[in-house]
Write a structure and sequence with these properties.
Number of helices: 6
CATH architecture: 3-Layer(aba) Sandwich
Radius of gyration: 18 Å
Strand content: 15-25%
Number of domains: 1
CATH superfamily: Flavodoxin domain
Largest sheet: 7 strands, mixed
Number of strands: 7
Order of helices and strands: HEHEHEEHEHEEH
Distance between the termini: 32 Å
Length: 188
Amino acid sequence: MKLYSFVLLLFFSQFIYGQVKTKNVLIAYYSKTAHTQSLAEEVAKGAMAIPGVQVVLKSIAQTTTKDLLDADAIIIGSPVYNANLAPEVVQFMSAWPFEGNPLKDKIGAAFVTAGGISAGEELAQVNLLHSMLIFGMIVVGGDDWTSPFGASAITNEGIFKTEKLDNLFLQKGFTLGKRVATIAKKMN
């Protein structure tokens, strides 16, 4: 019983004195048809599965500079337009704070939704990651070789032409969020 009390006292003293810090994961997305929003929500569920992580899920229109600065990890989502990011996402990232390098060493990750298979989803993901590297962020890909650049979903081709995202893609979103949150917790 004394050992249990000591462990609790040690934990709470570390928490009070800032040695155990909640990690903040920001998930910001643009969604025109709700597909990217659905994937964003699954990424958030994955991040929330890690204890000690606070998740902020917002559209890019709602996301503030303070949200970016307060985040330990930033995960950005975009639909794919002609193998590119949505113009709204490019504009959003172009407005990020640059002077003084305030986003340096934050974790960064990407997710996208595309109409068809090989319709530019990997190019769009890499564009997001390239932009994050410009800001000095540490980029993280997906959980395994099937999602090396983050999570992606196909929304309008073959068996994936449905109103809801296929569970395969939702699982990729969940594991991306979980991986980013896990890595953010390991970083000081």
